[in-house]
Design a protein that fits this description.
RNA polymerase that catalyzes the synthesis of short RNA molecules used as primers for DNA polymerase during DNA replication. By secondary structure, the chain is an alpha+beta fold. The protein is built from 27 helices and 16 strands.
Length: 603
């Protein structure tokens, strides 16, 4: 094994896949394995399984699967080199310079991405140095101290200060040999039109580094200390910064979210920093934009309870409603924190303190249904009889979406008491609405085009899968199958896997699903191996089972061969080539004789 492969194998054996994936997915033990919501597709019930024994993961819904390296590559959009480096850092293993050079030669785009990340890291340190050095940072530090930010938060969120200079950053980058064109593309520096010289975009501003889920700086936000416009200046989206994929503060909040199984969703980075300073360390922000599917999935994977704490203006309420709709389902508890009008979390904490924010805002958050009722109430004039009836219908319609009968009953009683309507009539109307919805859903199902169904595989396909699953676990079985079947698997992906397995064992490798996956470069084959590795098989190997499976595969292979030759024979006969037709008939008879040796039930 080459040095590089030795180090990769050391990383794989040093880390527990449950711990690594547990940073992204809320996992619960079920038998030998752990299950959770799949991070690679939207689902309401868990179909994502992680095996600590095999150090593999597989989703029975979308088919995603693999080992530690493939998981990091898929979840973070990394190259193999980046995934290896991230996992090596976690395992405290030095990859060495030879690995980095080799990876850069294989994929120049990885090297460009790394240079960009390194450039932003350099600037994060530089801006922070300027802020915390009295000679340069006193204007910025004075502003932050007046706003009540303490030294711990300034350090933890790596806040910085861009001095009022046109070339401080440009000069540093040139001195360090950083590619200026790359930094221009991500909006940190710009080029003057009249002399094509670079200059700093951020001047006299507090700098807020924006981090990806791993805590790497991928963008910056700058708040002016003067009257410059705009008040907040952000670097644009780039190859390393996609706003909709990032939750600000997630890398710092992750442990707290896991511990409490609760997340607080805010709107902006200042709110997050202030909330963490107040002790609400499970806070993250959706970067001032509408919550995206990717952000919602990251939250629901990690937390059972999610509290939305947006501004209390009309836009904030609408955004809260949309976010709640995206987050609900799969038993998640969604709550809405009721902010006083005209205040955001930053304002509130500065005015009333962190303890009141925790008790009177976060602690007093409403259930989603209570929030919906208040939201629907705002749209109706309840002094008007017609609007009042429409409001009641709106609420009943929302109640049909609740899974728990106790919860539905609670809100029906509230409606009954408030509007002096009998509980029985409300229950009856709510049930009628529910049945109408169910009928519509059934009608959609009947009229919708036939989707991919959970088909029952034919016997020969199941036989091939069981053989491969056993072969992955045993070199002896693989050798026996190779001697008997060779490459006679019918399904293309099974043929390819068998060939790779034969070569894998021929190189002296042990039966190890994770290592085998590591040797495969094709993601489709990696997913298939993870699927086969998760197949439930008895510990004891039944030799008769292996023989039966091989007979099934041979029988199907020969039956297919007979069918193909029959077609050829008919065409030869139709064209008048009776000599070829006779030769094919002889071959068919011989194959049928061979087929007689493999007596199993036909598929």
């Amino acid at each position: 094994m080459q040095l590089q492969e030795t180090v990769i194998e050391e990383i794989r054996k040093s880390l527990d896949i449950v711990d690594v994936i547990g940073n992204y997915v809320q996992l619960k033990k079920q038998g030998k394995n752990y299950i959770g919501l799949c991070p690679f597709h939207s689902e309401r019930s868990p179909s994502f399984s992680v095996s600590p024994d095999k150090q593999l993961y597989h989703c029975f819904g979308c088919g995603a699967g693999g080992n530690l390296f493939t998981f990091m590559m898929e979840i973070e959009g990394m190259s193999f080199a980046e995934a290896a480096q991230a996992l090596a850092d976690r395992a405290k293993i030095d990859l060495g310079t030879s690995f980095s050079k080799d990876s850069a030669q294989r994929n120049p785009n990885d090297q460009k991405r790394k240079q960009l990340i390194d450039g932003l890291e350099l600037l994060t340190k530089f801006y922070h140095y300027l802020l915390t050095t009295a000679k340069y940072g006193s204007p910025g530090m004075h502003y932050l101290e007046n706003r009540g930010f303490n030294a711990e938060m300034i350090k933890q969120f790596r806040m910085g200060y861009a001095i009022n200079s046109w070339d401080a950053v440009t000069h540093l980058l040139q001195k360090r040999g950083v590619n200026l064109e790359q930094l221009e593309r991500v909006g940190l520096i710009a080029k003057r039109g009249f002399d094509n010289k670079y200059f700093d975009r951020f001047r006299n501003r507090i700098i807020f580094p924006i981090f990806n889920m791993r805590g790497q700086t991928v963008a910056f936000g700058g708040r002016t200390l003067g009257d410059d416009k705009p008040k907040y200046l952000n670097t644009p989206e780039s190859e390393i910064f996609h706003k909709g994929n990032i939750l600000y503060g997630y890398h710092l909040a992750r442990q707290s979210i896991r511990k409490k199984s609760q997340a607080v969703l805010l709107e902006g980075y200042v709110d997050v920093i202030r909330a963490h300073q107040a002790g609400v360390t499970c806070s993250v922000a959706s970067m001032g934009t509408s919550l995206t599917e990717a952000q919602a999935a990251a939250l629901t994977r990690m937390a059972d309870t999610i509290i939305i704490c947006y501004d209390s203006d009309t836009a904030g309420i609408e955004a809260s409603f949309r976010a709640a709709e995206m987050l609900q389902g799969n038993g998640k508890i969604i709550k809405i924190a009721n902010m006083p009008e005209g205040l955001d979390p930053d304002d509130y904490i500065r005015k009333f303190g962190g303890e009141r924010f925790k008790s009177d805002v976060i602690g007093a958050s409403q259930t989603l249904m209570t929030f919906k009722m208040a939201y629907l109430r705002r749209k109706r004039n309840l002094s008007d009889e017609g609007d009042r009836l429409l409001y009641i219908e709106d609420v009943l319609r929302e109640l049909t979406k609740l899974d728990r009968a106790v919860e539905r009953d609670h809100y029906l009683r509230l409606l009954s008491e408030e509007f002096s309507i009998s509980l029985e009539s409300l229950k009856k109307q709510q049930y009628q609405m529910y049945t109408r919805v169910q009928r519509r859903e059934k009608q959609k199902t009947r009229t919708a085009p036939l989707a991919k169904t959970n088909r029952i595989p034919p016997a020969y396909e199941m036989a091939e899968r069981r053989l491969l699953a056993r072969m992955i676990r045993s070199r002896e079985i693989s050798d026996h199958v190779q001697d008997t079947l060779g490459g006679s698997f019918t399904i293309d992906v099974h043929q390819a896997l068998a060939a790779y397995l034969y070569a894998y064992y021929a190189q002296g490798n042990p039966p190890d699903e994770g290592l085998f996956i590591q040797k495969l470069e094709d993601p489709g084959l990696q997913r298939k191996v993870s699927e086969l590795s998760m197949m439930p098989l008895s510990e004891e190997v039944d030799e008769q089972e292996i023989e039966d499976c091989m007979r099934q595969v041979i029988r199907h292979s020969k039956s297919s061969m007979i069918a193909d030759k029959e077609d050829e024979r008919k065409k030869a006969e139709q064209s008048g080539d009776y000599q070829r037709s006779a030769r094919l008939l002889s071959e068919i008879i011989n194959i049928k004789k061979q087929l007689g040796h493999y007596q199993v039930e036909p598929d």
